[in-house]
Each structure stands twice: as structure tokens, then as C-alpha cells.
């Protein structure tokens, strides 16, 4: 079949079309900064639109999806490390940021960015690789139609109490804040107590939804009575008018874990100066205030940041003392262990 | 080689290597970098437990999908079912919806969950593969063959022969379904959020992905790639037998009368098709609740809608045009299985594996202009889904009787005239169908695009970004927008399919 001219023309056209749609933007531009974030896009937009307006610097945003559970961009940052495309990484938790630091993907900020000295010490890296802001607490979300006030759970150990068999939930601990949370428990409680908790989760037939948002929704719908989630997910479900209540667990013992968002400069990113300016903005009181007033209600870490009264800050509740660097160092090992365990 | 190769053949091979083969192979370099980790992942008992569980889900799916798809295919191709042409046109539509949309739609409404729900989603989503392939095989039953069998052995002999013809084709459909089931974890993850957790083979790949273990992911990918690859190569070899040229004297066998079962079977088939098309759509419309919310979401996502539609258009065109020289090349090769393998490899490897390969391939200073823009998405989608254009295109082109072009040549017609006057009129209709088919498949991909810079501009990415955090009416609106993007090509498909059937004398 001799169809040469037509075919070559067709292929040429296809390539041309592809190239036509593909004339991409370069990474390095004076008025531009590229931000990779594992937070959801609408929340991030609420903050960066102010930064763009204030500085005239356009933020090229790339957000992750819940499906990739904060790791899609971590993987991309790892793969891109020989030719980084991002300037700044805004992660919704700490563990993956610390992993990226250990893999040489991040660059220390020296001198530290303005405003970082007001971030409490436990929420920033002493070497200047990452800085915490706008946190979330790991709370118990409880369906008030299904749990009577006198029965209200108030501890992580309630998940493994036989009276709640098949009624409680926790996200399968291989991703996100749940992975960090359980790794932190290992550091705080020690291996024996952690093993008791993990064994109890399995024995007590806890439900294992795919993400904290899904868990909060399931509690709101009454499919699960209560479970661990983040304050941000609780607030979203609450806003939908679902009968839910937040309980800050273990107030008399180890306290409630607070996990900050973290921001870092990417090593070798195309626009480091703009990256620093964006980081300084994210660490400002103004950014924390915007995020506190956002529907997700992030917890300001710096003192005296204006916030809605329902957003509780450390001091109003007892906070778990955690060394995030140590948690970050063990999290990879834990992930493999728990993926095998919760199979 | 049977015949001389032309420059465009080499060009097509180069394009195939660049778009599909190399990105599929590059992540296997992780095996070389971390051989211990890769080996540990490969021999991990959990990997094999999950693989067996996935094969169990697949077996349960095919246990229903194969007989149902076969019956559906037989009814559509060989019976006098009322409205069968319309049913045939509607049959592939569930394939164009990502499984998550099936899950979100009427499963979301009815609250089904657990192992049976997983199997049910896959049955609804993938039975059309079996049905369509059966239709293709059964449409090659000739009138002479059917009449001889009827005279010699009665209706049961005809049915037995039909089954003999359709079964391997249905197997090809089952293979396509199997590859997609093997690489999916979202359906099981979503539907076992409450109750006993079901983890699947793709969860093991995902765990290595989460742990950033390149060797681990390479090792864990091996069984899946081998299984998918072998099945696909078998399917393609069989498909090649299906695509034998049909001469001008071929007369398709007349439909067999169903008698009193005609109307009940028609109703059953309508119900089956409605479960995969109308019901999800209806459920999404109900969940979307108001036009205001839908319009608000449309305005918010208008940039993504345009981007997704343009990308789909460019990708489907690229897939169709690249398939043409590859089909021509396959016809000239003595061992076309090697080419088949190259075309199907990107579809057989796990999607996120392919995404990693794309980064490694294109994120370099010299090719940054490709990586930083949507061209990398175009290459990714053309490479990964080329098989879905190549497969039907091969069927279309192989059915053009070479005697026709040979006769025209002897009569003095040049290659251009042969193409324009003989081949083009025969293939333009099916080619349009292949284009529509390719377009809709490009809307399904997320896992590889999620790793790419430009991938987050797609509407499917937007849907996944909102699926947990937005209100159900907003999510349903976005899912409807995705269906609307597919609606343009689908309307073309519906119109042209009807037209083609009318021309072939079926209506």
C-alpha cells in the first residue's frame, strides 16, 4: 500500500500540532516564582493572591491531589533534583520535607528568612532548611448523633477500647499526617506502647479510609462513630452542617499532636530570590492570619496572630512534645513496616 | 522484511520510541541502581498476596463480564434484537468514564461498598471491552458459513460456531480489562474506606512510590508488566487473525430470530447499558443539585476545560496519525509481534512508573522546553494510549482488500490516487470513530500526568483535587464537566456510528 506522501504529511502535522501546543515557558523569569504545594489549591490561592498583589511576582502554582497524598510532588521534586523546576516547596506536613532535606533536594536559608525567628523552636529546622507555620492538630472527630456526651472518647486509646469495636477509624498509616502522627507516637511512647496501639487498631477492627478528608466525611455521614483526623478536615465537615464535634485527645497525658505546614527553598531552583520573598511572606503574621480565617482554620504558630475564636492555639490545649527531625528520620522505615502490616 | 520501508516508517518508529518505549523502560534503571532493594520488592510475600487478591478480583469480574459481554456481543452482532444498532452505538460509552466517576455517581448514591462493590464497578466499567470485541469477531461470520451450519446441524450448530468465533475475541477484551484492573488501586481504596480493607497489587507499587524507592518500584512492577505484556501480545496476535481482509463478495450472516425472547432481551440489554451510562449521568445530575453550582464550577474550571479539550484533540489526532504508518509497517514485517510489544509496553507498565520515566527522559536543559510545557503531556498520552488507536486502526486498514489497490495500480493510478480514491473512502468513517475513541481515552489518565509540571491543568486532576475536600454537589458538577468535554467527540461518534451502520445496511 503506497500511502507515503499522505502519511508523512499526517505525521508532520501531528508533530507540528504537538509542538504548537507545547512551546512551554522557561523556568527563570524576573517576575515569577514556582511553588509546589501539597496543600489543596483553593487554600493556597487565598494566600498567594495577596503575595502576588503585594509584590507583582507571579506565583506559578502546582498543587497535589488527595489521590497522591502529598507524595506526588515529593516524588517529582526528587526526580527533578538534577534540574529543579520549583523554587519553593510548601508541604502540608513535616516528614516528607525532612526526607527531602536528607536527600539533598532543599537548600538552607542563610541568613534565615525574616519572621522565622518568631516561629517556636520545635517548629523550625535549626539548620534553616525548613520553617513551620499554620499548623493542624490531630484531633478525634466524633459524630454527636451516634455518640452520647457521656460516652465521648477523649484519648487515642479509645480507638482500641473493645466497646468501640468496629466503630472507630484511622487512615491507613502509610501517608500524610497519619503516618507522621503514628511515627511521632513511636518516638513519644516507645516501641512497646506503639505496638500495643497498632495491634489494638487491628484487633478492634478500626476502619481504614484512604485519607483524613474521607474519614471526616464518613464520620459526618455516620458511617463511622469517631476517628483521628486533622482540624482542617474537621472544620470542612462541620461547615457542611454535619453533626460532628472535635475532641483534643490525651490532654492529661501526652497531649495532642500539632503538625505544622512547612516551607522550604528548593536547591538550584530557577528563581531563588523570589523564592526567599515568598517564604518570608508565608512566614509573616499576615499569611498565618489569612490561613487561620480560611474555612480550614489553620492554627497560627506565632504569638498574637489574629484568628477566629474557634481556632484553638497551643496553650489553649496541651501539645505533644515531638522532635520532628527524629520523626522524619524514621518515617521511611515505618512506612514500609505499616504498609506490610495493614495489608 | 516483506517490502521496502520508507522514511515515514522510520519516523514513526522514532516517535514510538520517544513517546512510549523509552519512558517505559527508563525507570527499570532503578533495578540497576538498587538491585538489592529491587529483588527484595520482587520476592516480598505481600506483593504476591496482593497480586493474587487482585487476580481474584479480576477473576470475579471476568466471571461475570465474559459471559455477559459475550451474550451482549452476540445479541448485537447476530440477533434481530430491537434497536440493536442504537445499543451497539451506546455500548462503548461506559469505557469513556474513569472508574472513579462510576464510583462517585450511583455508587455514591446507593452507598455500596466492599469487595462486591469493587467487582461490580469493574464489571460495569469494562464489560464493553468484551462485548465490542465479540461484536467484531461475530460480524465476520458470513451468510454462506451460517447457512451451511444451519442446514447441517440446526441452530445449535450455528450458536456453537458463533461461540467458537467469539470466545477468543472476548478474551482480547478481557485482556484489556485485566491490564486496567491490574494498575488500579483507587476503586478498592475508595470502596473499602469502611469495613475490611482491601489492598491490591497496585498498592504495593504505590507503597514503593511513597517511600521514594526506585529499586523497589522497579522490582514490584516486574510481575505486573510481565503478566500484562504477555496477555497483550497474545491479544494482539489473535487480533491480527481477526483482521483478515474481507473480499468484496463477503455478505454478513443474517440476524437470527430471537422469537418471543426478543423484547425481554432487548429490555435486559437496555438496562445493562443504562447502568454504565445513563444511571451514572443521572446520579451526577441529582448530586449536582443546582444549575448555579454547576455554572460556578464551570466558570472556575473554564481554563482547564479548554486546556483538556485542546489536549484531547491534539493527542487523539496524534494517536490516529501515528497509528497509520505503524499499521503499514506491521504489514511489512515478518515478525510484527516486536512492534506490537513496543506499542503495548507503555500501556502495560504502571502509570506512575511511566510518569517517572517521562521526567527522567525530558527534564534536561536541552529538552526543558518540552518538559516545561504541555508538549510532554501530548507525548505522554500519545505514547501511553497509542495502542487504543493502533488496535482498531489495524482492524480498519487490514480489512481494505489489497486487490482493490492492486487493480487500480494496474490501471495506472498512482499511490496518491489509490489512497484518495480507494483507501480514504473506505477508512474515513471508521477513522473518525477511532479518533473519537482515542479522544475519550485521553481524558481518563491521571496517575502519570500527576507527576508532570503541566499535568495539573487537566480537568481530571481538578476532579481528584476536589474529590475529598469539596462539597458533593461541586464534585458532581466537575465530573459532569468532564463528561461534557467528552460530549463533543461522543456526539461525533454517535452521529458517525449511526451513519456508518446505515451505510452498511444494518438499519
Tally of helical segments of chain B = 23
Unreliable spans of chain A are: 1-6, 16-26
Structural class by helix and strand composition of chain A: alpha/beta
Distance separating the two termini of chain B:
43 Å
- Largest interface, counted with CB-CB under 8 A? A-B, 72 and 81 residues
* Low-confidence runs of at least 5 consecutive residues of chain B: none
Mean residue pLDDT of chain B: 83
Compact summary:
Chain A contains 11 helices and 9 strands. With 343 residues, chain A is of the alpha/beta class. The model of chain A is unreliable at 1-6 and 16-26 (pLDDT under 50).
Structural account:
The complex is a heterodimer of chains A (343) and B (507). Chain A has 343 residues and is of the alpha/beta class. In chain A, 39% of the residues lie in helices and 15% in strands. Chain A has eleven helices and nine strands. In chain A, helix 5 crosses helix 6 and helix 5 packs across helix 11. The N and C termini of chain A lie far apart (54 Å). With 507 residues, chain B is an all-alpha fold. At the A-B interface, helix 1, helix 3, helix 7 and helix 11 of A face helix 1, helix 4, helix 9, helix 10 and helix 15 of B.
Keywords:
heterodimer; A: 343 residues; alpha/beta; 11 helices; 39% helix; globular; B: 507 residues; mainly alpha; 77% helix
Topology:
The complex is a heterodimer of chains A (343) and B (507).
Chain A: H1 4-22, E1 32-37, H2 41-55, E2 58-63, H3 71-79, E3 88-91, H4 95-102, E4 106-107, E5 131-143, E6 168-169, H5 176-189, H6 191-203, H7 212-220, E7 226-230, H8 231-239, E8 244-247, E9 258-266, H9 272-282, H10 285-293, H11 324-341
Parallel strand pairs in A: 1-2, 1-3, 6-7
Antiparallel strand pairs in A: 3-9, 4-9, 5-7, 5-8, 5-9
Helix pairs in contact in A: 4-11, 5-6, 5-11, 7-8
Chain B: H1 7-25, H2 29-33, H3 35-43, H4 45-78, H5 84-90, H6 99-110, H7 115-138, H8 143-182, H9 186-191, H10 201-210, H11 214-242, H12 262-276, H13 278-288, H14 291-300, H15 302-332, H16 337-348, H17 351-362, H18 368-371, H19 375-398, H20 402-410, H21 415-442, H22 459-466, H23 472-503
Helix pairs in contact in B: 1-15, 1-16, 1-17, 1-19, 3-11, 4-7, 4-8, 4-10, 5-23, 6-7, 6-13, 7-8, 8-11, 10-11, 11-16, 13-23, 14-23, 15-19, 15-21, 16-19, 19-21, 20-21, 21-23, 22-23
